[in-house]
Every structure is written in C-alpha cells, then in structure tokens.
Amino acid sequence: PGIPRHTNRLINEKSPYLLQHAHNPVDWYPWGQEAFDKAKRENKVIFLSVGYSTCHWCHVMEEESFKSKEIGEIMNKHFVCIKVDREERPDVDKVYMTFVQATSGGGGWPMSVWLTPDLKPFAGGTYFPPEDRFHRVGFQTVLLRIAEQWEENKDALLESSHRILEALRQTSEVHVQGQESPPPSKEVMDTCFRQLSRSYDEDYGGFSQAPKFPTPVNLNFLFTYWALHQTTPEGARALQMALHTLKMMAHGGIHDHIGQGFHRYSTDQHWHVPHFEKMLYDQGQLAAVYSRAFQISGDEFFASVARDILLYVSRDLSDQAGGFYSAEDADSYPTTTSEEKREGAFCVWEAGEIRALLPDPVEGATEGTTLGDVFMYHYGVKENGNVDPMQDPHEELKGKNVLIAQCSLELTAARFGLEPGRLDALLQECRHRLCTARAQRPRPHLDSKMLAAWNGLMISGFAQAGAALAEQGYVHRAAQAAAFLRTHLFDPDSGRLLRSCYRGKDNSVEQSAVPIQGFLEDYVFVIQALFDLYEASLEQDWLEWALHLQHMQDKLFWDPKGFAYFSSEAGDPSLLLRLKGDQDGAEPTANSATVTNLLRAACYSGHTDWVEKAGQILAAFSERLQKIPIALPEMARATGIFHHTLKQVVICGDPQGEDTKEMLHCVHSVFSPNKVLMLADGDSAGFLYRQLPFLASLERKDGKATAYLCSNFTCSLPVTSAQELRGMLNP
C-alpha cells in the first residue's frame, strides 16, 4: 500500500482496533473529554462505534462504510464520531450494549449507538449495510434521518434519552432484597443441572443447536455437580454430558487440527465450520477444563488436547516479555498476491493441495493407498469441499475443506488395514507437513494488546494444567506471566492493577499515555490466577499478592448497600451507569468467579468477613439463581462450594522431599472442587504462618510428609499415606 490518503487522531492510540481505523476518512476521536467537549460546544449528536480488532463484521462495516469518502463526509458534517475498543473499555461497551439489547432485542459487534452531547443514548443497532438492502435500512439513510431528527425534534430526542436512561437504571440494578440470605444450594444446583440437561445436544454435545459455543462455565458446573453427586444417576449424566461435549469439540473443526488451539465458535450443530478467530480467554479456560477432564477420567486424550492448546498459546500468543496477546483474526489474505481478505483462508484446504503434499504410498496398507488418502478419509476431506453452503453465505469457503475428525483411529486404521499406533504416527507426520505448508500463507492479524483479565485466565490454564498433568514447565510459564503482570500491569505505588499494555516497536512493552485502570474482571481473574499458581508452585509470594489485590478489589468495587461488586469504579462522570454483570457468557461474569475467590481468600487468611461477602453476593443474585441458574452456571457452582465449605488440605513436609512430592501429586491428580491446598514447611516466619497461626501446631508424623484435612481451622488426624489422602479428598 502507498501513503494513506487520510490520517485521523486514532493514529496516536495504542489499541490495534483503533489503529485499524486511523486512516479512515472519518474524523474519529477516542473516548474522552476532547470528543465530549466538541459535541457540547457544537451541539452535535455523538456517533459511538464499538468493536474489537478480530471482529469479522467490524471489518465488513469498515470496508463498506467507514472507508467511504461519501459516508465519511456525512459523519464528519453531522456528528462527533467516537471509536471504542470494547476489550480496552468493557465498562463503556456494557453501558451502551445494555441499551442496544433493551431497545432492539439483540446485540453484537460492531455496535453503533447515537448519543446526545451529554452521552445519553437514543438510537442504536449493530452492523448496518452502507445502503438500503432488502429489509435492512442502510447506514447512510440512518445517518441522514438522525441528523434531520436532531435538527427538527431535538427536545423530543433529549426527553426520550432521559426516559430511556432512567428505565435502564432501574432494570439493570442488582441488589439484595431486604434480609435475603444465600439461596439453597441444592435447589439452585439441581435446577441448573435440569436446565442444562434439557438444552443438551445428545448427539454432538454442547447446549444449543447452532451456533455452538464452547461455554467452559457450563462444563465446570457439570464437573462440580458430578463431584458432589458421584453415586447418583444425575451425577453420572452430568459427567457424561461434559466429557462427550469436550470430545466432540476436540474432533470438530472448531479445533485447529493443524495449528492447535480452538476457534471462537461453531456456526453449525456439528462443531464443524467455525468462526475462525482465536481468543485468548477461550484458550485459557479450555486448557483448564481439558485438564480437569483428564483428572476425572484418566483419559490421556483430554491431556493431549490441553497440551495442544498450551502449545498454540506458547508459540503464537506469547510476548517475549512473558505476557499473552489477546487474539488472532478470522480473516486473512488467501495468498501473498491477494487483494482481499477472506474468513478462514489461513486454515482451510483444497483436496488437491492435500494430495500434492501427501503423495507417499503407505506401506502395509491396501494397495495404492497414499498418505493423502488416509488423511482425507480421517479428516472428512472431499474433492469439492466439505462446507455446507448454508454455513457459507458469502461463498468464501466454496471448494474448501475444514478438517474434522470423522472417525476414531480404530475405524480409520481398520479401513486401510493399519495398526492404530502406526496410523497415529502417520497422521502426525501428515499434520506436520500441512503445518509447514500453511506457514507459507499470510498470517491473520494478531491483536498484540495484553489485558490483565485475559492474562489471568491464561495463567490459570497453565497453572492448572501444570498441576494436573505434572508438567513443571507449564507452572514455570504461568509464573513468568504472573511476573509480567506485576511488572507491566500493576502500579506498586497505588497498589492497583492496570487494564492493558501493548507490544511496541522492537518488541518492547508500551503503555498508553494515560493508562486505563483495572476493572473488576481484571482483579477477579488475576486473583483467581494467583491462587491457582500458588497451589501449583507453592510459592507464597503469589498468595500474598492475591490477598492484597482482594483487599483492593473490595475498596474499589464493593457495593455496601446492595451488596456484590460493581464492574467499574465510582467517579467516572462519562459512565452513565455502574453495572453488575448478571450473566456468565464466554467468560464467567466477575461476580460469579469472585465468590469462589473470596472463599479461597478466607481459607488462606482467616478473614471470615470474606465468607460473609461471598454469601452476600449469592443473596444479591438469589432470585436469578433460583429461577434461571443456567444464566449463571459459575455462580450456581459457587453455591455448592459455599454450602459444602472449602476444606484446607495442609501438607507438612520438605518441599524437595520425595514423600512431600508424592503427597502433592496425589492432591493434584484428584478433582476436588471444594478444597484449597497449602504447604506448611516449618518456616514459622513465612506469610502463611502469620495469616494462619494454627498451622504452627501441625507437624510431621514420624518424620514423614504428613497431610491434614482442616475445616474452619479444625483439623483431622494426620495422614502419611497418599492412598489414605486420596480417599479423604473425595467431596
């Protein structure tokens, strides 16, 4: 490309999404006082456009509308135009998405909202085509109509925006009703199980027909439900639902069989044709879920999928300073000479390409069989492509194949007269060749922004996999990322987290001129990560930092009147609403995840007020938990943890001793959702001993590593056998 014709003030931003729009003919502003002052001074409507850098329809709307000189002129004449990266500013995104969902019945990105100069919304939607089409009004038409209405009916629009905001304020409020106590755990968990069971796809797994999302929150709920109901038919069904879903996802096209990791979601019922972007938060949560599946089942298949995810993240989403990048795009150029990006171009295959890469005859197979024949059979490759036209409305995947493991190794081996072990090695060789060939294609855009919350989720993935799979390298990688957070996304002077930092020139790590302060989700997922990292590494520094951050979270976000935490701090005049997320989605909402954090924090510190806070959150969401717990499966799961009380598993022993390592391996190999692990190694001056003086009374028995099971700081008799300990860990 030559020198850009236009450059707007987004060129000074760090966000990859904002930089994508820095050469639009639109006079974009970032979210901030300069734009707000201009709107008031000139009495203009604000057009707010919210998206993220790996969003397919955001790219489409940019190409069609924001790069159009004609549309740009209309926008610049009549509006003050603001661009927001929803991943940088989830608080702004949530306020206006609440409005769009309430007024249009749907939501999504790009989000397009029109605001009065005092930031109150009065019209909104998502993607608009540039011109009127079929039954869809065009963006240009909408812009001109709104400009006309503002000129002619300004007072009516202002009145309408005021009424809308008041209605949103009332309907979005989450608070405790009177003296309400936490809802009964058994009812909440049983209802959530029944609701998930009703929506479960018996054939292909998952909890909808199409589109299909990984939803780790559902799978984590089912694992905990199984753990607390192991001897019942319901418990057995919960486990079967979770494991079958994980197997079908891993076999499907949503799983990148060549480049590892998981795409965002499947557009069809069979997990076959994905929306191809890859998000860090999915990789972190799925690595943890597949590790738990291995813990529970002992099936090496699940461990191999967890390793596959962590390989992808280590290779493609890791900054050399230790942090993790946010995402890879769905769209890319099919070839180095292509002028137009296509969705999935980096990941899909023509049958002819595969035959050319895998021409070798296979010894011992039926005569004339090539590696290509075996690979194409196993992964469902067809000569004319294997994508249903219904899943490809823009014909971007016509004649292409999305790999999906159609058969078990045993069935494919039998089809070609091979041993399963030999077939496995052959398929590995095939995947390696395709990976090498794919590396020659133009890569999708990488969003190299690093977010505290998503880095927290990924640290948990590495730490939990490291513990469950006994892979110290993963624990080390988690510690490296936690050290990165402490260096680049934590302000030691204020004791507060920051939201984001960015890969700069020469692979340096850069920060915005005015850093974005951390939101509730940043604290919650980083605290969770530090607890997971402590249990995997037993390095007390991580525990100390986690408890500091929990105190800071309470100070910044707790609602002392209505209970639970606000998603953002008080004191930002540009935020019209302080909201509390009430739905678990691609990630658990922060109030859901923080319940378990608070219970763990209380176990590590002895501060029982954190147990009280956990109960108050459950009370604030009590009505929703009792009616539609499927909307909050992580919080429903936490009601079980709250009710059953966390057990403190204390191991007294030398961290380097083989007997201690055996005990720790036993704890890590058992899925026990209602326990915390701590090592009492005799260092009476250590952080844990200062927090929990009762640890000083626990000692090794007969000089051996000894385990105690404690609850409310009352401990069981000592145990020196890993086998006995295993029996005690059962929930």
UniProtKB/TrEMBL annotation:
InterPro entries: 6-hairpin_glycosidase_sf (IPR008928), 6hp_glycosidase-like_sf (IPR012341), Ssp411 (IPR024705), Ssp411-like_TRX (IPR004879), Thioredoxin-like_sf (IPR036249)
CDD domains associated with the record: SSP411
Superkingdom of source: Eukaryota
Extent of the signal sequence: none
Domain Spermatogenesis-associated protein 20-like TRX, first and last residues per copy: 7-168
GO annotation terms (biological process): carbohydrate metabolic process
UniProt-recorded name of the protein: SPT20 protein
Native organism: Pachyramphus minor
